[in-house]
Design a protein that fits this description.
Number of strands of chain B: 11
Order of helices and strands of chain B: EEEEEEEEEEE
Structural class of chain A: mainly beta
Number of strands of chain A: 12
Strand content of chain A: over 45%
Structural class of chain B: mainly beta
Oligomer: heterodimer
Helix content of chain B: under 10%
Shape of chain A: globular
Number of helices of chain B: 0
CATH architecture of chain A: Sandwich
Helix content of chain A: under 10%
CATH class of chain A: Mainly Beta
Radius of gyration of chain B: 13 Å
CATH superfamily of chain A: Immunoglobulins
Strand content of chain B: over 45%
Largest interface: A-B, 25 and 30 residues
Number of domains of chain A: 1
Radius of gyration of chain A: 14 Å
Distance between the termini of chain B: 34 Å
Order of helices and strands of chain A: EEEEEEEEEEEE
Amino acid sequence: AQSVTQLDSQVPVFEEAPVELRCNYSSSVSVYLFWYVQYPNQGLQLLLKYLSGSTLVKGINGFEAEFNKSQTSFHLRKPSVHISDTAEYFCAVRINQAGTALIFGKGTTLSVSS
Amino acid sequence: DTAVSQTPKYLVTQMGNDKSIKCEQNLGHDTMYWYKQDSKKFLKIMFSYNNKELIINETVPNRFSPKSPDKAHLNLHINSLELGDSAVYFCASSLADLSTDTQYFGPGTRLTVL
């Protein structure tokens, strides 16, 4: 079975500061990795994903993540955050079989203040 | 252009009632999902359909019954609603192609059982 641990439930930062949201996963088989963002009272939007290839993945809104197989991590980073980045961020994994479900972490609340 | 749509967006009902949530996708995807997000924002898969066939059925009370009339629709019917069913329900869809497989989420349906 697969599992995802998001190490921080809440991350408060000031505007224009860098941020890292941590995600570790556990799986006995190869997995694909995803980060989704959920703005208040909205659905989930894909930020970025790792399927294969380069371990550094760039996504929307200036976010990037690095897949580290030895540490089973997929941390999300942004060099300079904006107030509008305030949202819930979910890390998720899926085994590399088409049509299988996402296994989500419990989410990290990113709060950006001025 | 709405990719994955759900109706209704909000649903308030009394315990014991039967209700349905509808989901439609216009992305040409062949796989659809229902996820439940609880009050702590934890997301968990409930069901998954591929080409109208049930492929994932997690441990969900049999009061919940998904129905897929065609590849573009996956509805969720809930009988005898209970207080614990209060949650946000998300529909998602994907193409069963490992090279591009990304799940796109609807805006969610917030169900409140009184």
